[in-house]
Write a structure and sequence with these properties.
Blueprint lengths: L4 E5 L7 H5 L11 E4 L2 E6 L6 E7 L5 E6 L3 H6 L1 H4 L14 H9 L11 H10 L5 H15 L17 H5 L3 H6 L4 H12 L1 H4 L1 H5 L1 H8 L7 H11 L13 H10 L5 H8 L6 H10 L20
Antiparallel strand pairs: 1-5, 2-3, 3-4, 4-5
């Protein structure tokens, strides 16, 4: 077995390990995130190179992490932040019974910080204006065809997310093959050109970090929020512009659909933790009424 580094860390708060890490998973077939046996496996880039980590919960409540690759130490150093040690859910005040109930029932649900913008930015751009099925398929294609094999004794098929250099080298026809249209391709390439500068967004955090990301053509409010939620655990970064979220929030809290402007008003009392309120709505078990057909995926590879 390849040499690895190890760390054990005991949180001093309730921790839902799978729930905290779930937003980092891009579908069941994500080559960078798998559950195997009793462990949760992640592969990512770091400032020092690629890293694979596997996390397991121990009987005493601590988390044991093993890591492989050039970035193993960087990954282990960030274990507490990844699992939400910097988050402050205890400061959240609920203003609706449904939100209050979810907050009470799910004390272990926190916002974790991956501390890595690039790994969150590419899949977020892929999710712009397409179905989740389309975006996940494109992410799998790019990782499997252009990402390196994951370091360590990983479950079959795990890959490192393509680096900025690898993304810049993808030929035009391979983007088409991966089902990525020209607008999303241009946005990803624009991010790759300044990727080293964009990592500073995680250091800035909050509104400043999101604004830094939005300087890149093709990165809007929605994409910046999706990255912020994962890269630095931003509890106020709401994904305005989402096809579903305003409707779900509206039905859950008011009994009717909302647009972005309406959701902005409804969430105003939750500043600076508006996204936490949205997360509680999403995990509360509430299901909005369905009145029409679902949005059908498009296959850009046939266009």
């Amino acid at each position: 077995m390849p040499e690895h580094l190890a760390r054990e860390w005991a949180p001093d708060f309730p921790l839902d390990l799978a729930g905290v890490l779930a937003p980092l998973r891009r579908g069941a077939g994500d080559p960078t995130f798998q559950r195997a046996g009793e462990g949760i496996w992640r592969v990512g880039t770091t400032p020092d190179g690629p890293a694979t980590t596997v996390l397991r919960r121990l009987p005493d409540g601590a988390v044991r992490a093993l890591a492989w690759g050039a970035g193993a130490q960087w990954a282990l150093d960030g274990l507490p932040a990844l699992l939400g040690a910097d988050d402050r859910p205890e400061e959240f005040v609920a203003h609706h019974p449904l939100v209050a109930d979810a907050h009470r029932r799910l004390p272990g649900l926190r916002f974790g910080s991956s501390r890595r913008v690039w790994d969150q930015l590419v899949p977020a751009v892929l999710e712009q204006k397409v179905t989740g099925t389309e975006a996940r398929r494109s992410w799998r294609e790019l990782c499997r065809r252009f990402g390196d094999p994951a370091p360590g004794p990983v479950p079959a098929g795990m890959r490192v997310p393509p680096t900025p250099a690898q993304i810049r080298a993808v030929p035009d026809w391979e983007w088409h093959r991966a089902g990525v249209d020209s607008a999303r391709r241009r946005a990803i390439l624009a991010c790759a050109a300044v990727a080293h500068r964009l990592e500073k967004a995680a250091e800035l955090g909050g509104h400043e970090g999101r604004e830094l990301l939005r300087r890149v053509p093709g990165i809007g409010v929605w994409t910046a929020a999706e990255v912020a939620q994962r890269a630095w655990g931003d509890p106020d970064a709401v994904s305005f512009g989402d096809f579903h979220i305003p409707t779900v929030v509206g039905w859950a809290l008011l009994g009717r659909p909302l647009d972005d402007a309406g959701m902005l008003d409804v969430l105003a009392p939750y500043v600076p933790q508006r996204q936490r309120a949205v997360r509680y709505v999403e995990v509360s078990g509430f299901r909005r009424p369905r009145f029409g057909p679902r949005f059908s995926p498009r296959d850009y590879r046939a266009m």
